[in-house]
Design goal:
277 residues, mainly alpha
């Protein structure tokens, strides 16, 4: 246990002694704040009559005053999840790129302990990244909704359950990033995979799958769909055609956890246990 705690402390030091974490945090806050604030103004204006509903295409989905705040707040995970994935992948691949695994394994020869400590550390940091994203989506988005006279639902328990599940989702996404980085230790390749899958491949797969009930059920097990199910709200419910019912929140969490475990375990045997030069 002492060795594990020391490894966790070392992993925190590796992250916070670089500029990467706060650069990503600033970009994430601005990105989510812009999206959440902009959409809150758009839909808030429609709900209050400031903007004519005829000028807005919501994809046929009914957005009511009760569903609007969770939709805005969910931007933290439904859009911002790429940031903890990138952070986790960079934390793993950086070990290979900068050859810091050698002194790490000399200090802690049990490689499984090192990988476990890195995963736990990134889960906690991923949750911290989630706090930044929520500060933007809830702080800015909720503020804009209130400015339009829409109840931001900040006193409702469901809102804070959504916040808690968002933190869990962001932590699991960071764990997936760690697993991917171990599985694909080439840093450039990992970054390309993360960006290509999260920004192009999965959104397209989810859109195509949503047209048929059979494929929509399969699409529910894609990582992004599982994350949205865990959180409980997503902009994709508006942008996509009606499909199968989403997974329950706990099922979505188990699916995300499964992705993280599979990638990490395979990566451990494929690259982590190899000789380090």
């Amino acid at each position: 246990m002492i060795s594990f705690l020391r490894s966790v402390s070392a992993e925190f030091a590796k992250i916070f002694t670089t500029r990467l974490w706060w650069i990503l945090a600033i970009v994430l806050f601005c990105y989510i704040g812009l999206l959440a604030g902009g959409l809150a103004a758009l839909f808030g204006g429609v709900q209050t009559g400031v903007i004519s509903p005829d000028t807005v295409n919501t994809g046929g989905a009914a957005i009511t005053l009760g569903t609007l705040p969770p939709l805005i707040y969910s931007f933290a995970s439904s859009v911002g999840y790429v940031f903890p994935v990138l952070l986790g992948a960079l934390a793993s691949t950086g070990e290979f790129r900068h050859q810091t695994l050698t002194p790490t394994f000399l200090a802690t020869p049990r490689r499984g302990v090192v990988l476990g400590a890195k995963t736990v550390t990134l889960i906690l940091i991923g949750a911290g990244v989630g706090l930044v994203a929520l500060a933007a989506s809830v702080g800015i988005g909720g503020g804009v909704l209130s400015a339009f006279g829409v109840d931001a639902l900040l006193q409702g328990s469901e809102t804070w359950l959504l916040v808690a599940r968002t933190l869990l989702a962001m932590g699991l996404w960071a764990a997936i990033g760690v697993g991917l980085g171990v599985l694909v230790p080439n840093q450039v390749a990992s970054i390309v995979i993360v960006l290509a899958f999260t920004q192009f491949i999965e959104p397209l797969l989810r859109l195509v799958a949503s047209f048929l009930e059979v494929t929509a059920k399969i699409g529910n097990f894609l990582p992004g769909a599982a994350s949205d199910a865990l959180v409980g709200a997503s902009i994709f419910t508006v942008a996509s055609p009606a499909g199968a019912a989403p997974l329950d929140w706990w099922q979505g969490g188990l699916v995300l956890l499964g992705y993280a475990l599979v990638a990490t375990i395979i990566g451990y045997f494929v690259s982590w246990k190899k000789d380090v030069t």
